[in-house]
Amino acid sequence: MTATPLRVDGAAASGTAEFTERLRAVAAERYHDRHPFNLRMHRGELAPAELRRWIANRFHYQRHIPVKDALILAKLDRPELRRSWLRRIQDHDGTAEGEGGIERWLRLGEAAGLHRHELWDGSRVLPGVRLAVDGYVNFCRLHPALDAIAASLTELSAPGLMRTRIAAFERHYPWIDPDGLAYFRTRIDQGGRDGAEALALVLDLARTPEQQQRALAALEFKCEVLWSLLDAVDGAGAAGAAKEGRT
Ligand SMILES: O=C(O)c1cc(C(=O)O)c2c(n1)C(=O)C(=O)c1cc(C(=O)O)[nH]c1-2
């Protein structure tokens, strides 16, 4: 399949302010910060086994983010666009062994008592999480660049959630070494920058009402991916915790 070339010429699309409002509204109102599992996490109600389950399953999402970003990268036909998107892959993979977001997530796991091989081997990944992550990667593989970039706009809401999460972990889950929270601290700035860059690109690419509708639908789909992931983690419930042999 040939990627549709991107056209970024700086001219304003029609109804930009209203379109921006609508994107921000979807990213805010359908975001997973409202999911019952996240609400329980923030209130300090998760048992250690539930928090470990979330960390192990979210690792499955994290390790696929650079894969989906590589698929997006291949759709970008201009050096400046590829340069900026390549930085996302480097943020997650690092530029040397022992660096980057994936490494920081592994350290989060260790701070919570999970060995890194338990994250890499995928043995704790729930079927619904596997499907949600596959859905996101394949969406970015098969759809045009506009849709795939618009799907990343959930990051407009991510920095606020990172702040809430850091505060909740420090307050309610002191058994997790605070050094393990470095992933979330780093994502406040990275997520803010990535969200702003992706928004500028989407505004530039979505010129027609049809394209704007596609972008909004892509963002809604992504909200559903994040929501489904948490549904699966939440649904594993107390029975799952017993099976995992940890409470
Ligand atoms: O912990 C979270 O709640 C959360 C949410 C999101 C998001 O909104 O998609 C991302 C991340 N974290 C994240 O760490 C991350 O690297 C990331 C990349 C992307 C993306 O779609 O390109 N979303 C997110």
UniProtKB/TrEMBL annotation:
Catalytic activity: 6-(2-amino-2-carboxyethyl)-7,8-dioxo-1,2,3,4,7,8-hexahydroquinoline-2,4-dicarboxylate + 3 O2 = pyrroloquinoline quinone + 2 H2O2 + 2 H2O + H(+)
EC number(s) per entry: 1.3.3.11
Keyword Signal listed: no
Keywords assigned by UniProt, alphabetized: Oxidoreductase, PQQ biosynthesis
Pathway(s) of this molecule: Cofactor biosynthesis; pyrroloquinoline quinone biosynthesis; Cofactor biosynthesis; thiamine diphosphate biosynthesis
SUPFAM superfamilies associated with the record: Heme oxygenase-like
Listed InterPro entries: Haem_Oase-like_multi-hlx, PqqC, PqqC-like, Thiaminase-2/PQQC
Residues annotated as domain Thiaminase-2/PQQC: 22-231
Keyword NAD: no
Family: Belongs to the PqqC family.
Protein purpose: Ring cyclization and eight-electron oxidation of 3a-(2-amino-2-carboxyethyl)-4,5-dioxo-4,5,6,7,8,9-hexahydroquinoline-7,9-dicarboxylic-acid to PQQ.
Record protein name field: Pyrroloquinoline-quinone synthase
Gene name for this UniProt entry: pqqC_2
